[in-house]
Amino acid sequence: MNNTKIFKTSFASVYPYYILKAEKKGRTKAEVDEIIFWLTGYNEESFQNQLDLKVDFETFFAQAPQMNPNVSKITGVICGYRVEEMEDKLMQQIRYLDKLVDELSKGKTMEKIFRQ
Question: 3-state secondary structure string, the chain?
Fold first, then answer.
């Protein structure tokens, strides 16, 4: 699979779809942001800066302050692939985020999403 297209896609262009997916199921933008902050280490200001700069996924994850040490606890299937078995690190990070937003929209509590 050629992943270059998603790697070069602006994170800011996909972010509204994460919010829309969550809101359709009664969740909030604040919860999506909390997931992103937990996963990447961004805070409100640094995250907004990334959105304003319209960085691509590759840059977004490369500049993330610190990936959460509990990411290895994120398991399961997303888009037909097991996230824990993905060889491409960037694709795995993108799919981690997809998986967490999926869990949010499926009604999981934040404690479960954050593997606490």
Answer: CCCHHHHCCEHHHHHHHHHHHHHHCCCCHHHHHHHHHHHHCCCHHHHHHHHHHCCEHHHHHHCCCCCCHHHHHCCCEECCEEHHHCCCHHHHHHHHHHHHHHHHHCCCCHHHHCCC
